[in-house]
Amino acid sequence: MKLYEFQGKRLFAKYLIPIPKGKIFYSKDDAFKMIDQDIFPIVAKAQVLVGGRGKAGGVKLIKQVSEIESALENLFGMDIKGYKVEKVLIEEGLNIEQEFYLSFMLNRNSEKITMITSSQGGTEIEILAEENPEAILKLDIDPLIGLKNHHFVKFFEKTKIKDRNLKNQFRYIIKKMYQMVIELSLNLVEINPLAIIKGNRVIALDSKIVVDDNGIPFLSDFDSFINYDDLTSEELDAKKAGLSYVQLNGNIGCIVNGAGLAMTTMDMIKYFGGEPANFLDVGGSSNPDKVINALKILKRDKNVKVILFNIFGGITRCDDIANGIKIAMEKLEISIPIVIRLTGTNEKEGVKILNSLNLDIATSMQEAVKKAVSMIGD
Ligand code: GDP
Ligand code: MN
User: Fold this and answer.
1) Residue ranges of domains in the chain, CATH in brackets
2) Of 29, 133, 231, 320, whose CB neighbour count within 10 A is largest?
3) pTM (two decimals)
4) Pocket of ligand 1 (CB under 6 A)
5) Atom of ligand 1 nearest to the CA of 124
6) Residue 118 in 3-state DSSP?
7) With contact defined as beta carbons under 8 Å apart, do 332 and 324 qualify?
């Protein structure tokens, strides 16, 4: 998942990487009201999840009050490569002396964390790589060993930074960015430009962060910086609960263990003339909470008319799933009919638990899917 610049900068602040003073605004009027007379120059930056925003006119340097209205008018609602601008970050305008590029990314090919550096910051790295590849330094860092002195030596050689005070600031920021990758499961953290400003201060003027989706359940204060825009609220809650869930348009809600079986279940629903309401993989574990969370999420989808469980117990134990269903039924008051296919490890124990709840249980997948489809009717 990509984070917006302002969300990324919040994370930088948490890691004590210097950022400009600034505030996020969700409407032109709010921004206009709250801008102080004596903070100029300021920079107003469109928040969109796409690169090359500066070039597209999404970054405006505003020198005085009289320019602000038209600048905001211009930014809010602007279209940048198909993304509509609905948030604008307003920051203090700083005097840039030099711009650098610095990023760390998870490199699946080398199985390392790759640090990319250039003293020609400001331009997009893809463009720089094409036009001036010698200006870029790439270093693979072994995550089992971590950052070592030789990485810093190479960084300073390439960037030609000699001043001790500056070196200390860069060293600090490099360490913090690397720490973020490890602690927050990032696929990418990029600062472009990382700038030296007046007074010999090094500061992150931009941020680009991609979080590995699998790391999201482990992030504390998830809500404070997460990007909700392209997820339904059900999908967001599923993410938080560690479930793989994609909402669809049909009316048969599915709860399945294993992604492959979940895909097959959707195919089979279609084959028998039904429409799946979602893809949902509760995973291979036996945690009853997962079932409860899954039922909570499906319950909120008003299109769901039947819930179909398809559980093939391997590592997953049927009795754990059954217990999850039992607890959920007691807690959640589910009025939607449920069809269950439950087979495999501890099947007998599971069926026993469910029988006490008067639920429909099938052993074959075909039988269960047909039943669910028939309950929808025409
Ligand atoms: P991007 O084009 O989407 O990557 O947007 P950036 O946040 O990187 O900003 C683009 C350019 O705007 C930077 O390379 C800077 O040259 C300039 N810029 C950004 N913030 C400031 C600032 O505070 N002061 C000044 N003078 N320029 C800025
Ligand atoms: Mn940038």
Assistant:
1) 21-92 (3.30.1490.20), 96-224 (3.30.470.20), 233-377 (3.40.50.261)
2) 320
3) 0.73
4) 20, 43, 45, 52-54, 59, 61, 91, 93-94, 96, 99, 122, 192-193, 205-206
5) 4
6) strand
7) no
